[in-house]
Amino acid sequence: MNETGFIDLRSDTVTRPTAAMRRAMAEAEVGDDVYGEDPTINRLERRAAEILGKQAALFVPSGTMGNTIGVKLHTRHGQEVICEARSHLLEYELAMLAWFSGCVGRPVRAAGGVLRWEQVKQEIRPLGPHRAPTALIELENTHNMAGGTVTPLEVMTEICDGAHNAGLKVHLDGARIFNAAAHLGTTVKDLCAGADTVMFCLSKGLCAPVGSLLAGEEEAIARGRLYRKRLGGGMRQAGVLAAAGLIALEEMPARLGEDHANARFMAEEMARIPAVRIVHRVETNLVIFDISAAGMAASELSRKLKERGVLINPIDQRLLRLATHHDAPRAACERALRVIEECLH
Ligand SMILES: Cc1ncc(COP(=O)(O)O)c(C=O)c1O
């Protein structure tokens, strides 16, 4: 429950910094990061690179900026980016693909949001008299709008190997890559091994107040630093944010299983409500559910829930998405469940 008394299941982005993060923020050593002189940011970037198994990493204010720079690093104007049809990059980033990189997305609808090499390879286009060439494959793991579904390691590896053999790069939108690793019982390093660049967020299930990282080869990240400055992402004494980020990185991944168990619990209980259909396998912390059988629009259910103290966003007229997270423990999920039942009966 948040300070306003609501149980907020709209997203894991609503998590607030923990007490340990707030203490670390108050005590953080800082400097001017545009000069490369913020010791806490430097420490966060080194540690993130190490955990992801990449040469270098760049602290950016948001996942959107991390994806924007990731795409820019691997593309030129007039090229195509293959991505899943419901990917965040395509659907929720205000066409940054086109706006900053001058590229178009080639959307591929994949079951459960899990792209396969078999599908991807059929969409690759060489430059021709009528066609823009493919430059980049973009993957999203976990996949937000497919309901937090996880792309398994072997599928990631096959796509990355296939892309590289075809002379293409791979950018991984790993906003929730720690959730994917927790579900698979693998390391993020293994999951990220094939990708040329990886973006992940500190400010979602890991509870940091602000920030994401973009990791990759030293040369790419050095160029990325310049794009970050162009985009207005040179943040000066942002070590206060990186201090929280370090705690997010070191301490929070270990508890994500709790969020996943709460999401499974919610999904299993909601599946008993006749008007509810859970539309995907619940693997991590997101649950997308269909209420068309209730004869009520999703926006209407969302409004009724809010009147009773529960926040859950509609996706469209039929679907809603809820996210479990650190600030909504099991008791809050149980309460939310009762309210959902009341509103649908
Ligand atoms: C999969 C995915 N990628 C990228 C982002 C963008 O992150 P931000 O909101 O920090 O820009 C989000 C945000 O929800 C996301 O879910």
Task: Show the helix and strand layout.
Elements: E1 7-8, H1 19-27, H2 39-52, E2 56-60, H3 63-74, E3 80-84, H4 88-91, H5 96-99, E4 104-108, H6 117-123, E5 134-140, H7 153-165, E6 169-173, H8 177-184, H9 188-192, E7 197-201, E8 212-216, H10 218-230, H11 239-251, H12 256-270, E9 277-278, E10 286-290, H13 298-307, E11 310-311, E12 313-314, E13 319-323, H14 330-344
Parallel strand pairs: 1-11, 3-4, 3-5, 5-6, 6-7
Antiparallel strand pairs: 2-8, 7-8, 9-10, 10-13, 12-13
This protein binds pyridoxal-5'-phosphate.
Would you write up a description of this structure?
This protein has 345 residues and is an alpha/beta fold. It has two domains: 7-14 and 255-344, Alpha-Beta Complex (Aspartate Aminotransferase, domain 1), CATH 3.90.1150; 19-251, Aspartate Aminotransferase, domain 2 (3-Layer(aba) Sandwich), CATH 3.40.640.10. 41% of the residues lie in helices and 16% in strands. It contains 14 helices and 13 strands. The protein has helices spanning 19-27, 39-52, 63-74, 88-91, 96-99, 117-123, 153-165, 177-184, 188-192, 218-230, 239-251, 256-270, 298-307, 330-344, and strands spanning 7-8, 56-60, 80-84, 104-108, 134-140, 169-173, 197-201, 212-216, 277-278, 286-290, 310-311, 313-314, 319-323. A seven-stranded mixed β-sheet has the order 2-8-7-6-5-3-4, sandwiched between helices. The two termini are 24 Å apart. The model has no long low-confidence stretch (mean pLDDT 97). It binds pyridoxal-5'-phosphate. The site of pyridoxal-5'-phosphate has 13 residues, from helix 3.
